[in-house]
Amino acid sequence: MGTRSTAGHGTGSGADEAVGASPAGPFGRAIRSPIGLLLTGALGVGLVSGLTATGPGPVPLLGAAAAVAVYAWVMRHVARRPVPEISRRGAGREALLGGGIGLGFILVPVLLLTLFGGYSFSWAGRGFLPVLWTTVMVQIGGAVTEELLFRGLALQTLERLWGSRAALVLTSLFFGVAHLGAEHASVWSALAIAVEAGVLLGAAFLWRRNIWFVAGLHFTWNAAEQLLGIPVSGHTPEGWFTVDIHGPALLTGGGFGLEASIVPVLLGAAIAVPMLRGAHREGGIRPRPGR
To answer: Are the C-beta atoms of 35 and 146 separated by less than 8 Å?
Structure first.
């Protein structure tokens, strides 16, 4: 599926190269430990996200920029390592590549379900540009901050402890469980999210080692759903269209939305496999330390 971004190379999550001052003493050692680093980073990025995610106008976009700055500071001054995964070099190319995959990942199942009568759309009349503006701002903010938390912090931290495979499984399961509180959620929808989102996005990061690639994929996925008016993880957005859903929930996703449909689950797995093969071929799958 192509070659890995040069921004994704370098020392990686286990790097010990000092790039800035970090706290000393027992407290410093505690927050520099893998779990301490994860908690410190998650607290900072999560706080920024919580304050800006639902803000008006460009606030979510500004929040995403602030979250990147927080992540970079934590990695440079606490983890004491460079951050090639958020390098500005090639960021646009990576985001566009990921975005293209994410758009196809949504449009193919939607087209199939529409052709077979599962979905029917009608224009909602909310205004083209206002809906587009709101969608782009909100979804950029959500995609960037979630990827910093789950792939930037959680996956790389767990990878240092137990290797890439265990980190992928654990972050995927947690991603699914985190969506159990959504409206119309079920055990099946959580499992579907774990496979199509947790595994796919985790595989995308292991392949490219680039947050912009994964955030681009995540952004176009959610933005396309919102613009089409398809429920996103149980929440029905105000998009360009309203959608009527017909047929079994296993096929259409029911009230939870497309993410609970078996179609994107199978498609997500099919996309993740070559990504994981590419990651393995290019040295992106790291073994458990000590093995």
So the answer is: no
d(CA 226, CA 124): 12
Of the candidates 257, 158, 148, 125, which has an alpha carbon nearest to the alpha carbon of residue 201?
148
> 3-state DSSP helix/strand/coil percent for the chain, to nearest 5?
70, 5, 25
More confident residue, 30 or 13: 30
First vs last Cα of the chain: how many Å apart?
29
Distance in angstroms (rounded) separating the CA atoms of residues 79 and 32: 6
Spatial neighbors of 148 by CB under 8 A, at least 6 apart, are: 41, 45, 67, 68, 71, 211
Dihedral angle of Cα 41, 42, 43, 48, to the nearest 10 degrees: 100
Beta strands in the chain (DSSP E): 119-123, 241-245
Q: Is the pTM of this model over 0.85?
A: yes
Q: Which residue has the tokens 């969608």?
A: 135
> What is the rounded CA–CA span in Å between residue 16 and residue 20?
11
Lowest mean pLDDT across 1-15, 141-155, 188-202, 250-264: 1-15
